[in-house]
Amino acid sequence: MRLLVVEDDRTLNKQIVTALEQAGYAVDAAMDGEEGQFLGETEPYDAIILDLGLPKVDGVTVLTAWRREGRKVPVIILTARDRWSDKVQGFDAGADDYVTKPFHMEELLARVRALLRRSAGHATSEISCGPVKLDTRSGRVAVDGNPVKLTSHEYRLLSYLMHHTGRIVSRGELTEHLYDQDFDRDSNTIEVFIGRLRKKLGVDIIQTVRGLGYLLDASQAPTKT
């Protein structure tokens, strides 16, 4: 999953980015509303964390512009304002959730996980596809109850596919959503990670759809008898 953090406090921005990266996300960052609005308009993020009190262009204006253009990316607003009217203004502009400063980083991470789950149509922190289970809260993966150790990139790839089970995902889409803008994006590496995942999972749930991409299909996995 690829996220954007728009926060003008450099220290807080760095803290949020670091926490998200440690949680397994690819993260881009912007320090003002103008840059944040541009990135949100030109990059395919899975969720955005947006401060309201931004220089150049304020957060509500940025969010309003995104929604006016039909961009449906989930947005969590950060605000130092605790008046109910400011929160209402954020929701009316199109926010999906909000966090009031100061906050505990674990709360923000939990809200990000919940927002990503809801946007993909999942109700709990544990996502299943046949015998494969992925816990978004702990970052653990298991097959038939047996833990599987994955690298950070393998986990990101599996997580994205499992959040979009039943839909064909192209290599280009995977590349755009798994790496931040500074990463040297080579879509050929996706094939390498897919091969590694298939070996580690040991079940045939990742299907290659020739010319289109990959499909996570639980019906292809063997069932226990």
Automatic annotation (TrEMBL):
Domain Response regulatory: 2-116
DNA-binding residues: 124-218
Domain OmpR/PhoB-type as annotated: residue spans: 124-218
One Pfam family named in its UniProt record: Trans_reg_C
Entry keyword set: DNA-binding, Phosphoprotein
Superkingdom of source: Bacteria
Keyword DNA-binding: yes
Record's protein name: Response regulator transcription factor
Positions of modified residues (4-aspartylphosphate): D51
